[in-house]
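Re-run with default settings, no changes from the original entry. Doing this only to confirm the output is reproducible before filing.
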Amino acid sequence: MQPVPLYPLVAVYTVGVLSDWFGIPPVALSYIVCDLIAVQFTFLAVSFIKKHRTVASLSNSLAFPKHSDIVILVALVLGVVLGDSYVLSMRLSREDQWKLVNELVPHYVDGFRSLPNFEIFPKTSQMNYSLYILLAFAISVLTPMIFVVLDTFRKLHQLKQKIAKVNYQRHAEGVICLIVQVATAGLSIAPIIRLGISIIFDHPDAQKVSEFCLAWFSTHSSFNMIALLMFFPPYKMFIKKHTKGMVRLMDGSMSVQLKQFGYDCNALENKPHWSFPANSDMHLMEQVYRSFLDLGSKIITTNTYHFGSTLDQKLDKSEENFEKTCNLLVNLAKEYEGIRIFGSVGTLATFYHDLSEYSGKYMDSPDAETTAFNYFHKILTIFQGKTKIRNLIFETIPSALEATVALDVLEQFPEMKAIFSFTFKNRKFRFIRQGTCRKLGEKWDHCNWRMLWSDREPDEDSEEIGG
């Protein structure tokens, strides 16, 4: 059942199962709505008093007597009976209602005739006084309830160090649930109060106000559930448990995060090897890794993408730093829950320092496959022999041939699992020899690797084929 206010008269008609199927008159249905609202707030008040009494008994402080619950329930019954009787006494006969329509809004007569039911109440000073009294009563009830809530929290805070943590949490959750219920109920009752104010002061846009208030009131159930999911701990835990693994946050750009902690990849002393020299400072890398983990990243990569840029110089220190940064991340991840680490394997382009990861032209050379094989084999040997990382991500590969070589290397490391990301444009990629794409596809069918797409602009002279 849904009551629909009618303006400019103080009138209502109802739609729904009770009115359409069972023919229950609008005045009775209006009683049901108002009475249910009164019952809801009364039981919430009783629940608060019971919770206050429980907390007060634990802290040996002043509490409401048990018979106060009965007094409140008796007051509810009397209020419902007297309120319904009072409204019923103001009800006009059907003849008087039609007379009022013809006198005040004769141009709405046809509209009223089309309604399956309606109820009109006379707009008198007596009604205004009744609304004033009702508003004052609501304020007089709400004010002490606020003090009850505040006093309950105060007593709970005093008990925090005196009772078991699980008991404290149970009482705190109960209070939070009640507060959410009261808050949502209060927000849903606000449009009814707004409607009453419109009636008292003859608001010029009363029809629009009534439509807005009606829409507002109808959101109560949805808003109540959303609020419980947001603020009630058991519901939050339920959602977290059943959505675990559905959405996982990954880390972002390593160079950008390094810059946040004072390391500039574009500085002259760092530019040949970009982000990799940062691994010489384990304190810096701990800050960077922790920044991702503290933000909730569940998937994080090692700062090893640019390791290949050091291989042409045969720097022993680079291999040592490679091992240190990987082991650092592995140890840090143990302090967090559900973290997956992927070892970052940069494309062969990092070996040449020329941004050729956007073109893949380095695979044009006659010995490209051998160079790529040795490159990837060197990196995977370090990962397997000197770290505990067994998940890898091959990043920004621009060439189908290079990906094929990487798969050949992976076949020699059966412990490793890998994700591939490519710098394709519109799902196209560079290939060098006839049959390379077919070979890559065949390998993919027999492997357990995953592939990610990354749209980048290739070099204008690159040869492309649809992927």
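Residues 425-437, 448-467 have pLDDT under 50 and may be disordered. The two ends are 58 Å apart (CA to CA).
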